[in-house]
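During the reporting period the student researcher (J.K.) took over the structure-prediction task from the postdoctoral fellow and processed the backlog of single-chain submissions. One of the processed entries is reproduced below for the supervisory committee.
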Amino acid sequence: MTLRHDRVMIHVKYHKDQQQTGRYKENIRFLAHPVGELLLDYLVYVMPLRQIFLRQQSPGALASPFLWEKGGKVWADGRLSRVLEDASGRTGTPRLHVANWRQMTVAIVKTKFASHISCFEPEDHDEDAEEMDDTIRAMTKQRNHKTQTVNRAYANQTGASFGNVWDGLIRMNLRASSLWQDFWGVETLLKSKKHDRDDRKPRLAKRIAMGVYRPRQPWSPEALLDAARKLYGNPRMAWKSPEQEEAMTTIMSWTEQVVAVLPTGAGKSLLFMLPPTLSDAGITVLVVPLVALRGDLLRRPREMSIDHLEWPPGERGEAGLILVTAEAASSKDFVKYARSLIAQQKLERIVVDECHLTVTAAHYRQSVVDMTMIRALHTQFVYLTATLPPSMQDEFIERNHLLRPKSIRASSNRPNLFYMVRRAQVGRASLLEQAAAEAQDAWQRSGLFDTSRDNLILYVRTRDQANELAGILGCAAYTARSGSTAEKGQIVAGWIESPTQPFLVATSAFAEGFDYPHVRLVINVNEPDSLVLFAQEAGRAGRDGERAYSLVLLPSELEAVATAANGEGDRLISARQDVSLGKLLERRAMHKYLNGR
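J.K. obtained the following structure tokens:
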């Protein structure tokens, strides 16, 4: 089978006298357009599905290469006659079988197509049967070759490998097939069965395969802002930035691949919480790569009465917003679930939160590597993060199998966040003990905190350091091994709700995505491991938009490479001034790295 002249062409060599003569003949058929489309759909969609089912039943098995087969074997003699008889019975027509069908078709050719007989049976010895136009026949003879030789040996379609099939024979069989189809009215009959379907629209199976969904009208920024005001119950609500507005309108214009890099506190959560609440909304799947995020992300839609569910393995229910972990998103069960939503035209988009982890955590978290395989699903993909440096973007695009995504990037600079760098004092207590003293002094004497709501986070490098510092402060520690998801959620909830314990000690396991707005101070004990990680950890502070602080406490033997512009490195430094952070260089260098400008 091949495509020629915009039609499906079937080329076989079998004929009735083959067993007696031992010779093959070129037998060519062209299918009517609707029949050809049906056959292509079968080959493209049904056959691979049959192969999957067959492999599940018998690993290593292969589907039969025959189009008309049963049990892996080509149809036996007499099977086609039985099929014709069954079809005749269903339509109430006289019983047909292969023998009387042949009689009928030969009679039709002789009586209806006599003037076109050469299209059906060109004789090999008939020199003039090759071309019907006298002028072309004369021009061919001028080449000192028989017409038959010229047509079969020269100027045939490049790359066509059909044995003894030449262009003239293909054209004759195309005319013969077209005559049959016109005689039976195949095109007219089958098109009338489409119930006035718009031929310009792909069929459902093709729409699903190509990622084309039910028609959507883009939302205007004004309509989206009005919907957001209703969702938050705030008639004066405005976009937090032009980039947030652009990201929201881009998502709701059904752009296939969207990457939104917005700083912490810039309203990324609106990008996945608003769409499920809009009229005629489909389903939004939110992939949560961090356990620390799950409780917080479940809390927000619950507080705003957004229809949502947390997807467990085996779940078949539906909601406007479905949260799934990175580990679950890469499972066969979830992919099967998502494909069923796509087949029903229900899944609108998949949103990946903290998407930079597909690069930064790829070397130690296999789940975020496996998670990128969901790109095989045909739906809109939205990637959200606060930290995706331009230098990392190419690797990010490659790891997530993207193709020219629409990228929206806002500056990571946060004017309400103030930075400090301080070196531990020589000869006094250990670095952890001095960090505990800094935290206690800030809480009790600085006057920076609203003690009814504000909290403080201390980040350390290792689990052992976290447990030791938590013991000094008498508070909880949050690490990757702090227990089950529920136990980790209890640690965070206890810290937020406690009126007497503002401190939480954590490793980088708590660096990303947590959204408690009233963290007033973040202390990094020792140098942060990277600019990306530092931006995430410091970004936990001041998400309510009020003044907040980041302190990096360096070991006494490690000096900052520079001090504040006014030489007072121990004082709170304005976000507009340049303060170096050891390896992190100065603030301007950090923002140049994160923003590319």
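The committee noted the following: The longest strand covers residues 417-423.
J.K. will present the remaining backlog at the next meeting.
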